[in-house]
Design a protein that fits this description.
- The complex is a heterodimer of chains A (about 110) and B (about 120).
- Chain A is mostly beta strands and about 110 residues long.
- Chain A has no helices and 9 strands.
- In chain A, a hairpin with a 6-residue loop joins strand 3 (about 35-40) and strand 4.
- Chain B has about 120 residues and is mainly beta.
- Helices cover about 0% and strands about 50% of the residues of chain B.
- In chain B, the strands form 2 sheets. A 6-stranded mixed β-sheet of chain B has the order 2-10-9-4-5-6, with no helix packed on it. Chain B has a 4-stranded antiparallel β-sheet with strand order 1-3-8-7, with no helix packed on it.
- In chain B, a hairpin with a 4-residue loop joins strand 5 (about 45-55) and strand 6 (about 60).
- The N and C termini of chain B lie far apart (about 40 Å).
- The chains are: A mainly beta (about 110), B mainly beta (about 120).
- The interface of A and B includes residues 45 and 101 of A.
Chain lengths: ~110, ~120
């Protein structure tokens, strides 16, 4: 069972905005550990999309944004494009599991 | 920039040991990073397996701790994963990645599929 909770799927039409939530506990997100987001296209390795809650690596469009509050974080995608159809994972650090990095279960984004 | 590449057998028999190596290029494995392994069962999410620090210290996911060991070869700029007593549940794509405390995994290797089957 993943330590961080994400919705299994979200969908939206091209041009729309979607949001993916990531819920943790006081031992990970709520303990002020940062949240990071990855995009995984079919057959590919995960690609870093957002780091340290809100920052985008070079080359990631500003259509992607991240936020964090309390024990939760969110990834927002605006101006949805067909190429955004992928799996998205959140990740943080957890102090209750003896030095562990933890992931969400992943969210499948479908562009209608 | 730093690049990682996994290598190892794609097929392992049940009850045997899965061994994979990650080759690091464009940077030294002796720098201050945690060199990690992550796996993804078919159609499932990501699972952190553990890390080995450049000093040789390790930390493993409690769910796999009894079966996992990791090692470093600084002369070859490589680190390795050994998972004993494998079953079909260990069939997965295995990724190596670099991470620091409270930071994201970046970069990742391309991943290698390991199938456990007789």
């Amino acid at each position: 069972q993943p330590v961080l909770t994400q919705p299994p799927s979200v969908s939206g039409a091209p041009g729309q905005r979607v949001s993916i939530s990531c819920t943790g506990t006081r031992s990970n997100i709520g303990a002020t550990y940062d949240v990071h987001w990855y995009q995984q296209l079919p057959g590919a390795a995960p690609k870093l999309l957002i780091y340290d809650n809100t920052n985008r690596p070079s080359g990631v469009p500003d259509r992607f944004s991240g936020s964090k509050s309390g024990t939760s974080a969110s990834l927002a995608i605006t101006g949805l494009q067909a190429e955004d159809e992928a799996d998205y994972y959140c990740q943080s650090y957890d102090s209750s599991l003896s030095d562990s990095w933890v992931f969400g279960g992943g969210t499948k984004l479908t562009v209608l | 920039q730093v690049q990682l590449q996994e290598s190892g057998p794609g097929l392992v028999k049940p009850s045997e040991t899965l061994s994979l190596t990650c080759s690091v290029s464009g940077g030294s494995i002796s720098s201050g990073y945690f060199w990690s392994w992550i796996r993804q069962n078919p159609g499932k999410g990501l699972e952190w397996i553990g890390y080995i620090y450049f000093s040789g210290s390790t930390s493993y996911n409690p769910s796999l701790k009894s079966r996992v060991t990791m090692s470093l070869d600084t002369s070859k700029n490589q680190f390795s994963l050994h998972l004993t007593s494998v079953t079909a549940a260990d069939t997965a794509v295995y990724y190596c990645a670099r991470v620091r405390y409270n930071k994201p995994f970046d970069p990742w290797g391309q991943g290698t599929l390991v199938t456990v089957s007789s």
